[in-house]
Automatic annotation (TrEMBL):
Official protein name in the record: Helix-turn-helix transcriptional regulator
Organism in which the protein naturally occurs: Ferrovibrio terrae
Entry keywords, A to Z: DNA-binding, Transcription, Transcription regulation
PROSITE patterns found in the cross-reference section: HTH_ARAC_FAMILY_2
HTH araC/xylS-type domain segment(s): 175-277
Length: 288
């Protein structure tokens, strides 16, 4: 387990990170525990990536405005699940948040939530709606009882394993084909054409799109777009001096105009504004 603490004029953070147990490899990427206090902002854009999430709020009430524009209030002791999104969502808080987060791979999310992932794309739903009252309550109660991050992570691991034990009818073969195609896109940083990807998989572009709709939630072309965007954020983090033109070219954008438009659509802000506002977790972008 890795724990990061930061104190400064924009607030105080503690974030704990841990991987799942071996049976969940490829299904869960990371468990996160977070405790944010006295932040100088109450509204931020949550930036998209290639993970679906489960979040349990153990702090003050928050509000989520998902990518589709729906408003979801999340009380203390409540939780939600979200699929992959094409652009930012908005979170609003009092300036303090505490809770647990699971970063699911698309395959893991498809199995855990038990829904074709296009139903979750760009959306946020209550855990009680997604899992049923009994399972959601048991998951949340266990996290509320945890006296440290490690105990909470073990509870999440056990809860996910228990849920997956009930999905015997899951189409694993179809999911594995899509997961392979997704890995190929990731290996190429989103710079593999969809036609070439379909040829490598050995299927039509239509069949590939159907698989992504079911097991990823968004189209292969959108996945490629997000991969280029996430590479931009990584290059920014590594750069001593940010040269947006060079970064856009390295990430595979055809021209600066395409890059700037894409960046603003995904983050809600210009590249320059992102640089001034970004947080160390490469996810949140304070906007108010």
């Amino acid at each position: 387990m890795k724990v990061i603490r930061q104190q400064g004029p924009r607030g105080n953070w503690e974030m704990a990170f841990a991987g799942p147990s071996r049976p969940l490899a490829g299904l869960v990427d990371t468990y996160i525990g977070y405790d944010e206090r006295d932040t100088a902002f109450t509204r931020r854009h949550e930036l998209p990536g290639l993970f679906a999430v489960l979040i349990v709020n153990l702090g003050e009430p928050i509000t989520i405005i998902d990518t589709a524009g729906y408003v979801i209030p999340v009380r203390s002791g409540d939780g939600f699940g979200a699929g992959l999104s094409e652009a930012y969502a908005v979170s609003e808080s009092s300036g303090s948040q505490r809770g647990f987060q699971v970063m699911f791979t698309p395959l893991g999310a498809r199995r855990f939530f038990g829904l074709p992932l296009h139903h979750l794309a760009n959306r946020v739903f209550s855990l009680h709606d997604l899992l049923g009252a009994a399972r959601a309550t048991a998951l949340i109660d266990g996290l509320q009882a945890a006296n440290d991050w490690a105990t909470g992570f073990r509870h999440l691991d056990a809860a996910i394993l228990s849920r997956l034990a009930t999905d015997a009818d899951f189409d694993l073969a179809g999911a594995r084909q899509t997961a392979w195609a997704l890995r190929r896109l990731q290996q190429e940083g989103g710079r593999l054409s969809i036609a070439a990807l379909a040829d490598e998989v050995g299927c039509s572009r239509k069949h590939l799109a159907v698989g992504f709709r079911e097991h990823v939630g968004i189209a292969p072309k959108t996945v490629a777009r997000l991969l280029r965007f996430r590479q931009v954020l990584q290059l920014v983090d590594m750069a001593e001096r940010v040269d947006w033109s060079a970064i856009a070219q390295e990430a595979g954008y055809a021209d600066q105009s395409h890059f700037s438009n894409d960046f603003r659509q995904i983050t809600g802000r210009s590249p320059g504004a992102y640089l001034a506002l970004r947080l160390p977790d490469q996810v949140g972008l304070p906007v108010g």
